[in-house]
Amino acid sequence: MLKPWLIAASCIALLTAIPAPRAAEPLRLVLATATPGGGFPAYGEALAAALREVDPDLTLELRASKGSTENLVLLRDRHVDLGLVQGEYAYEALEGQGAPAVTVVAPVYAAPGLFVVPAGSPVTRIDDLRGQMVALGTKSSGLTAMGRTVLRGSGIDPEHDIRPILLEHAGDGPAMVRDGRAAALFGGGTGWPGFRTMAEAPGGARFLGPSAAAIPAILAASPSLRRITVAPGTFPGQNAAIETVGSWSFVLGRPGLDPAAVTRLVAAIDKAKPALARLLPHERPSDPRDLKDAVPAAWLHPATAAFLRGE
After folding, report:
1. Which residues pair with 63 in a beta bridge?
2. How far apart are CA 3 and CA 139, in angstroms?
3. Minimal CB count within 10 Å: which of 21, 105, 213, 303?
4. For residue 8, what pLDDT is reported?
5. Residue closest to 174 by CA, chosen among 192, 156, 147, 190
6. Phi and psi (nearest 5°) for 44?
7. Nearest in space to 138 (alpha carbons), one of 208, 33, 214
8. pLDDT at residue 110, rounded to an integer
9. What is the mean pLDDT of residues 188-206?
């Protein structure tokens, strides 16, 4: 029979022979967002914080940019690893591109496009914006492109039937509407900072979508757009549902982005959904599985496609 001290010594030897679990390797990825005051910087900050909660060794370094169009250039030139790109620009960039290609890594959220005016404004429909000063967004923003598409589908030439204002920074729009320099502001997303600023300002705000007759024309003009219903109560003082159009925005990856890094990032985004919902309470949490219905499978990064297949 083995003596007790010998059994104890053997157990200690076995325990010390088992290697300690390896700590996760640090991973740093650079994410291009947009100008201050817009939805992309707010999303980038929330995503970086949510990921830290579930994978402390995964760091998203945020880089301000002019928005979707510049982010595509930064990605193609490999100056950043990831970039936030609005749906219309993403579809245009991803369709028919050759190699090396940018790819879809993850969804951001579906953003309904709306015009917002002060609650006391005489503007009650998009057609009332004819001849008015309208803040469409920044020059490089995908939301600006969406706004132009909504106007054209509504029978309004965005260059001649309104007086368009292109902003230096996305956050400049609400103040221009509140002080009368613009009759309306276009934006997208139920948690978009410009919408929240307008809705929570003294006197409140009203939100306008295209007419029921215009929506089919808008959807026909842009394959990236989808019909979206903004439920009553989404914004303070909103008593009725608003029918409009909108699109998904995406986290795109540069050509050649390491599959192991994407696998880890997408798994962390999936795990971080509760944290992201807490940090962005007015937006639907990003779920990688939403990509199945948002983009063609050929546009996905191979590691993202493998995640969706359950591999």
Report:
1. 32
2. 81
3. 21
4. 47
5. 192
6. -60, -45
7. 33
8. 86
9. 93
